[in-house]
Design brief:
Elements lengths: L4 H16 L4 H17 L14 H23 L20 H9 L3 H18 L4 H7 L5 H9 L4 H29 L1 H12 L13 H26 L7 H8 L2
Length: 255
């Protein structure tokens, strides 16, 4: 017990120095040194002291709430008519292998066939996206305190990056069969074949089966989903009005 007494005696001294030193650029460095010193006395194992205003449970719960609310907002935006088609930032274009054919068709007045095919791609994504919400909810349940703290202290898209790392593979596995079914319902393949049939000589060197349309729609839909999730996360971090609960205000207001 005696060996811990000198350490305890230094704690109020360090705290007093932090209060007395004027806040100047040079003194700022002393304050940071004092903080690191106090952190070292707490054990240096990353655990929060008992006196920290935000408990571990609050930090994890706050980030989970932010991710869940962001997911619900984004899925609602994308999973409706024109959710993809009506938004230039996430609208699914022709696959890159078809861009030359598409441009040529538009030049010859056949753009309506290209538009019909693009519309079918986006409709498939819009129909499939709502099925992702359950997986997005599952992805946040295993978040640890260490992960939550890194996210809270990280860049504006840190939570979305974590989200994607944890859920993307499972999302693709679950999403692809849904997209495959949806593409059949909205006639993606039929629209593709009609476009190529009308392309004439423009499509003579193009293999109609070379593009995996289902995987293409899946990948594009997931990219759009996470793009909007990152924007929603940034909004919650930066705009107090977007923090729609006391918990979100406490967690993100403490950064």
């Amino acid at each position: 017990m005696r060996s811990s007494e000198p350490v305890r005696a230094l704690v109020p001294v360090a705290a007093l120095l932090a209060l007395l030193i004027p806040v100047t650029p040079s003194a700022q460095g002393w304050g940071e040194l004092g903080e690191r010193f106090l952190e070292g006395l707490s054990g240096g194992d990353g655990r929060e002291p008992a006196s920290t205003p935000l408990a571990r449970q609050e930090i994890v719960a706050g980030l989970r709430e932010a991710l869940l609310r962001g997911s619900e907002v984004v899925v609602a935006e994308l999973g409706r008519e024109n959710g993809f088609l009506g938004r230039p930032d996430v609208r699914i274009p022709l696959p890159s292998t078809l861009e030359t054919v598409g441009r040529g068709m538009r030049r010859f007045g056949l753009g309506h066939h290209v538009d019909a095919f693009e519309t079918s791609l986006n409709r498939a994504a819009e129909s499939a996206v709502p099925e992702a919400l359950a997986l997005l909810r599952d992805a946040v349940r295993g978040m640890s305190f260490a992960e939550a703290r890194r996210i809270l202290e990280g860049p504006d898209d840190a939570a979305t990056t974590y989200f994607r790392e944890r859920s993307e593979t499972r999302l693709v596995d679950r999403f692809l069969p849904i997209v495959r079914e949806t593409t059949a319902q909205v006639g993606v393949t039929a629209a593709y074949k009609r476009m190529l049939a009308e392309a004439g000589m423009l499509a003579q060197f193009l293999d109609p089966g070379a593009v995996d349309l289902d995987r293409y729609v899946t990948d594009e839909a997931i990219d759009g989903l996470f793009l909007l999730l990152a924007r929603e996360e940034k909004r919650i971090r930066e705009e107090p009005v977007a923090r729609t609960s006391e918990l979100l205000r406490r967690v993100f207001g403490s950064r």
